[in-house]
């Protein structure tokens, strides 16, 4: 008589009944009651393996192909149906050998239909009309088909049409499985080897039988993990196919553990085999497949740790895995140097530390980088019904001012997530994380700096003041324009200043509009990025025009610039060049399929030295800043030459005072303050001078509009007097003396140059 096999978990009973006669008996006093019945089970094939010969049908050689479908031998009688997409199959037969049943047929390929996919499908139907099918698409080489030539490296690969993946069931000694290879264009892609060791294949089969309930018991579970441990310590594990096989066993047993309560006897072998596999070769496949393998591995380990019942085991330590158990509502554990504390938990808390895994997992979260090389998995045997929290103290702190991220592995998204986790502190070389759920945790660091509230306040305050100052500056320029523009030189200077102020105003407004990128659509984020890119470049371009004009007037005193030449040159440099640079960089990024902007910042992309669209901003601005710095040096040297040799101490003080005024005036107008921004790119974030440079850059550049207002209006005598005249409109205008005119046409540095007679008449 047959008996059912019982699986039991805390709340679930699952019975797996094989076919046979079942009898149930129970006793009341001296009387026994029995009942029995015959149970029949309608089966379907577990696996249908289809092969064709030849592997590739070449219409130039033969149009016939034999197809074979193989299933495991069974007592079930199937209704088998073949289907060929273009005609009928011939020579249908079946044979039994070596525990398998082979169904075969012959197909005649239609070589005159190159656009139609040709396939063969076999369907098995049992006695209750349940069906299972398998389909095989026949690869065909037609006339003029693009093909990969024959290749005998790592297998025998026949001539194959473009886009076709070939499977061969030929493996090396003591391995079973298959190899696949894809033809792309006229080139073969690398071979994907799925041949696993025979011993590992047996362990995989045992695990699959266990999951299906065929003889599932604690002894079989121990056998599976003992075999896995023995295999993981052997040298044959080095192939990627074997690593995939081990992960498959862990995944199958993790699924089975949800319904079959495995005991702690399997823990040592499980932990050791899972640890050993992390040191093996995972590099035989592409990164995408490694990401899938590592994600499946982490999910399987977490599942097994959660459902394996623990009574007496406190810890299991291996090189890559550290398993710890704690009892009580408040648990304190230390795993690989990481302190883990669970508050208000259930009775049994299991924690596992994993090394040598995090770099194998994908990381697409907020352009972040790994900070810790460890993953901490925390689980409870019983689900908690009351709120709880877990704290993890990682002995890692991001360098400089980079932002730490407390994350957990989201198995659905297969990526890291911060949901439910917060950074409580990041001081003294460690980072404290707090989360309100249990799973696999780690810590990352953002590529950007940690938000500084003080810098944010300075930035927003400075931009508001700058915008107001620039509006006032433009209004003043409009009101006093006719009174100021008395020569070409004054026209050049004020035209440049108005353009600098206008583009800086537009750039600041665009910057403020993008300070909350999370509420912007991708389209608006792109528009604002382009606006900032164009407006800042245009501002610097007009600074260059002002700089070149000044140096020209100093060097070529008696050859002044003509108005037409200056306006043509300035229009090309100030308007056309910024648009060309931005347009070219955007089209280049689109053509090369690289990112032009960061959606989380609404600004250009910086991917490292000379990488990213940021250099379409940094290179032009850096060039202009250096040019303007050179112009400032020329002005300072000119002032020094005008000083009388052997002059009095008073004259030396006047010269030094004049140089100070030049630096004070030209620094904001020439954009020299942006040099601190380049300094930030050069300095490491943990450098002592980084914080000073960051604050200096923020203060000087957010208040740049205010500095332009002060140096462009309030320090110029004629502008002040025109403003007073406008305010006291009832007073008659006063005539300016000739000596006064020497100061009125230029402010700041021009007044210092008036000491040199050959400049007085020109500037």
UniProtKB/TrEMBL annotation:
Membrane topology: Multi-pass membrane protein
Membrane-spanning parts: 12-33, 457-484, 496-516, 536-558, 565-588, 614-639, 659-680, 692-714
GO molecular-function terms, A-Z: G protein-coupled receptor activity
Any Gene Ontology biological process: adenylate cyclase-activating G protein-coupled receptor signaling pathway
Ranges where the G-protein coupled receptors family 2 profile domain occurs: 455-716
Domain GAIN-B: 312-451
Any one of the GO CC terms: membrane
PANTHER family: ADHESION G-PROTEIN COUPLED RECEPTOR F3, IG-LIKE DOMAIN-CONTAINING PROTEIN
Protein name, entry field: Adhesion G-protein coupled receptor F1-like
Species: Solea senegalensis
């Amino acid at each position: 008589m047959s008996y059912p096999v019982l699986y039991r978990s805390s709340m679930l009973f699952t019975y797996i009944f094989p076919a046979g006669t079942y009898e149930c008996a129970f006793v009341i006093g001296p009387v026994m009651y029995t009942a029995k019945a015959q149970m029949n089970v309608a089966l379907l094939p577990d696996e249908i393996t289809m092969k064709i010969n030849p592997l590739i049908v070449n219409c130039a050689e033969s149009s016939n192909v034999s197809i074979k479908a193989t299933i495991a031998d069974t007592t079930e009688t199937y209704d088998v149906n073949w289907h060929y997409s273009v005609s009928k199959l011939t020579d249908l037969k079946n044979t039994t050998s070596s525990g398998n049943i082979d169904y075969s047929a012959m197909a005649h390929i239609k070589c005159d239909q190159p656009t139609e996919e040709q396939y063969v499908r076999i369907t098995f139907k049992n006695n209750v009309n349940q069906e299972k099918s398998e389909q095989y698409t026949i690869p065909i080489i037609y006339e003029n088909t693009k093909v990969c030539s024959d290749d005998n490296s790592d297998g025998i690969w026949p001539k194959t049409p473009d886009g076709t993946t070939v499977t061969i069931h030929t493996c090396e000694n003591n391995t079973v499985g298959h190899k696949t290879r894809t033809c792309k264009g006229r080139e073969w892609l690398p071979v994907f080897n799925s041949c696993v060791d025979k011993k590992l294949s047996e362990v995989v089969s045992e695990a699959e039988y266990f999951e299906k309930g065929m003889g599932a018991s604690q002894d079989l579970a121990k056998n599976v993990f003992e075999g896995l441990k023995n295999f993981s310590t052997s040298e044959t594990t080095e192939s990627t196919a074997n690593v995939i096989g081990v992960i498959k066993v862990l995944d199958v047993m993790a699924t089975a553990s949800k319904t079959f309560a495995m005991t702690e006897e399997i823990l040592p072998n499980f932990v050791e085999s899972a640890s050993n596999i992390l040191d093996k070769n995972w590099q035989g496949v592409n990164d995408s497949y490694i990401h899938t393998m590592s994600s499946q591995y982490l999910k399987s380990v977490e599942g097994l740790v959660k459902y394996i019942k623990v009574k007496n085991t406190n810890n299991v330590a291996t090189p890559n895995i550290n398993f710890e158990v704690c009892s009580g509502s408040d648990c304190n554990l230390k795993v690989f140097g990481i302190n883990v504390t669970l508050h208000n938990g259930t009775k049994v808390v299991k924690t596992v530390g994993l090394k040598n895994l995090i770099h194998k997992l994908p990381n697409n979260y907020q352009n972040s980088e790994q900070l810790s090389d460890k993953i901490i998995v925390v689980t409870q045997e019983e689900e908690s019904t009351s709120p709880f929290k877990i704290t993890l103290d990682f002995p890692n702190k991001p360098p400089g001012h980079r932002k730490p991220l407390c994350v957990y592995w989201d198995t659905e998204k297969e990526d890291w997530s911060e949901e439910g986790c917060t950074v409580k502190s990041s001081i003294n070389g460690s980072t404290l994380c707090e989360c309100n759920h249990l799973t696999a945790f780690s810590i990352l660091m953002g590529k950007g700096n940690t938000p500084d509230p003080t810098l944010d306040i300075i930035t927003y305050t400075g931009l508001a003041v700058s915008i107001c100052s620039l509006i006032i500056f433009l209004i003043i320029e409009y009101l006093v324009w006719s009174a100021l523009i008395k020569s070409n030189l004054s026209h050049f200077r004020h035209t440049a200043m108005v353009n600098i102020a206008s583009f800086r105003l537009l750039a600041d407004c665009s910057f403020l509009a993008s300070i909350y990128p999370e509420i912007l659509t991708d389209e608006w984020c792109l528009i604002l990025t382009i606006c900032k890119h164009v407006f800042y470049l245009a501002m610097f371009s007009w600074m260059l025009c002002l700089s070149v004009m000044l140096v020209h007037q100093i060097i070529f005193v008696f050859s002044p610039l003509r108005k037409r030449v200056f306006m043509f040159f300035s229009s090309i440099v100030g308007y056309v060049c910024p648009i060309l640079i931005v347009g070219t960089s955007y089209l280049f990024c689109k053509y090369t399929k690289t990112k032009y902007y960061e959606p989380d910042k609404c600004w250009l992309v910086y991917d490292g030295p000379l990488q990213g669209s940021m250099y379409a901003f940094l290179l032009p601005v850096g060039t202009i800043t250096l040019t303007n710095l050179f112009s400032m040096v020329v002005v300072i040297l000119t002032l020094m030459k005008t000083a009388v040799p052997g002059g009095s101490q008073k004259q030396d003080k006047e010269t030094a005072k004049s140089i100070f005024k030049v630096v004070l005036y030209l620094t904001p107008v020439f954009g020299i303050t942006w040099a601190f921004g380049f300094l930030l790119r050069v300095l490491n974030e943990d450098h002592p001078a980084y914080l000073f440079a960051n604050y200096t850059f923020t203060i000087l550049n957010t208040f740049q509009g205010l500095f332009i207002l002060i140096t462009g209006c309030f320090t110029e005598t004629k502008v002040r007097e025109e403003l007073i005249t406008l305010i006291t409109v009832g007073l008659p205008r006063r005539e300016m003396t000739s000596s006064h005119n020497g100061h009125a046409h230029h402010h700041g540095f021009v007044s210092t140059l008036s000491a040199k007679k050959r400049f007085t008449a020109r500037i």
